[in-house]
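Here is the promised in-class demo. Please do not try to memorize the tokens; focus on the logic of going from shape to residues.
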């Protein structure tokens, strides 16, 4: 009797244990599967429902006029070299950002459409999404998703703004930019070199997730090749790699350089794009390099962060930043390697070589600083064509036909 009862109790216990472990196993499996799926989804967003036809992307001009209050100054949210940007609200309540390209673009309507359709296909959570375009007479307009928070420079270089950029947020922003750039370089069907990556081209959404803007502009905003200044460099001083500034050569590695500068800016909270003007021009990179060499890398960190940061993450980011701004183009990592280095601590990092600031000021830029800061956009057609083609580490396109 007693032993029977005991046996029954044991088997009941075993039974419960089995049921519980099966339940746990099933739960674990479904969680794993869900993770795998959402990851997969993230990698191949919208591959299934291809929205490539021109009609679905073309907005009626009257809709754009209505959304932006006829491009009223009140709706204006930015002004770049490519034209003004307006905030708009569609009749269904959706917020949009409307970029009205300046008229100096002589690109034909068909070509503009084709390029816009191609760029609209680039979809990644860390890229500002192009929703469509509008053509009306001379007007060429691009319509983007509206990203609620301001651009990164606004927060980073403003004492009040940088308060809301704690270390986890900054780290998330760094990783997000790296992923977005990797997608442009490697994962999208078009291989795009951004050419003007900088803090003001990083927009932040409501979750403070970064979204890269202004990519693909070399394709969309094509200027007549017969215009005088086809050798002007597109980009912003301070972020442009030396080989790009001096010789007009660009490759994915010039984007990597800009990423390195941006990364160091995010860590230090210091802007420095005054490479040619100020006496202290080489400030950011030499400051970073000097402190790194002296084993005081943590001094780079924005003092506003005080003690609230992960030492390992900060050190690794600084290390990666220095690898990206190395003078030797071949030694700079690809974005694929950068993303890998950020996500896995088992990847050992090389010792960085000096960055590209040395001897920088001895040479003259080929055009006055101001022109380039205004994001001059002239580039020739064949150049932007070759962007789409065989870009890899070694392909370097000569911009300067002189
Ligand atoms: C654009 O809107 C106007 C006015 O509402 C309309 O007459 C025209 O047919 C529309 N064009 C297209 C292409 O939908
Ligand atoms: C929009 O503004 C332009 C000039 O600023 C004007 O010519 C045009 O009539 C306006 N359109 C509408 C629909 O108000
Ligand atoms: C940015 O987003 C955060 C989080 O949603 C929010 O608290 C903050 O007010 C936003 N900042 C701006 C400038 O919109
Ligand atoms: C815009 C900006 O922050 N520029 C800085 C560049 O570096 C010098 C060096 O000390 C700083 O004084 C500037 O403020």
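The designed amino acids, position by position:
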């Amino acid at each position: 009797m007693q032993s029977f009862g005991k046996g029954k109790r044991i088997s009941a216990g075993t039974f419960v244990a089995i049921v519980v472990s099966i339940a746990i196993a099933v739960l674990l499996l479904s969680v794993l599967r869900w993770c795998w799926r959402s990851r997969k989804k993230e990698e191949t967003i919208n591959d299934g429902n291809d929205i490539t036809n021109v009609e679905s992307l073309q907005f009626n001009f009257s809709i754009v006029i209505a959304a932006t209050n006829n491009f009223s100054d009140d709706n204006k949210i930015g002004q770049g070299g490519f034209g003004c940007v307006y905030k708009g609200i569609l009749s269904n309540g959706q917020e949009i950002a409307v970029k009205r390209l300046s008229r100096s673009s002589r690109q034909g309507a068909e070509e503009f459409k084709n390029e816009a359709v191609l760029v609209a296909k680039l979809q990644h959570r860390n890229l500002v999404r192009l929703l469509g375009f509008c053509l009306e007479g001379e007007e060429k307009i691009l319509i983007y998703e509206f990203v609620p928070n301001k651009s990164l420079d606004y927060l980073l270089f403003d004492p009040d703004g940088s308060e809301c950029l704690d270390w986890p947020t900054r780290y998330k922003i760094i990783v997000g930019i790296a992923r977005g750039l990797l997608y442009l370089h490697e994962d999208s069907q078009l291989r795009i070199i951004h050419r003007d990556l900088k803090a003001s081209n990083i927009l932040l959404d409501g979750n403070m997730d970064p979204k890269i803007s202004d990519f693909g502009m070399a394709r969309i905003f094509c200027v007549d090749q017969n215009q005088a200044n086809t050798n002007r460099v597109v980009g912003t001083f301070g972020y442009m790699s030396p080989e790009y500034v001096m010789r007009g050569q660009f490759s994915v590695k010039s984007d990597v350089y800009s990423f390195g500068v941006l990364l160091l800016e995010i860590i230090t909270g210091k802007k420095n794009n005054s490479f040619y003007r100020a006496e202290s021009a080489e400030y950011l990179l030499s400051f970073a390099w000097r402190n790194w060499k002296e084993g005081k890398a943590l001094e780079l960190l924005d003092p506003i962060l005080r003690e609230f940061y992960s030492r390992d993450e900060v050190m690794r980011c600084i290390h990666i930043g220095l690898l990206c701004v190395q003078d030797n183009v071949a030694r700079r990592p690809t974005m694929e390697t950068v993303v890998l280095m950020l996500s896995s601590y088992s990847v050992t990092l090389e010792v960085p070589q000096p960055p590209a600031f040395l001897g920088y000021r001895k040479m003259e830029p080929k055009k006055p600083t101001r022109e380039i800061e205004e994001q001059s956009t002239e580039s020739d057609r064949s150049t932007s064509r070759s962007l789409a083609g065989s870009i890899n580490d070694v392909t370097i396109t000569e911009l300067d036909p002189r």
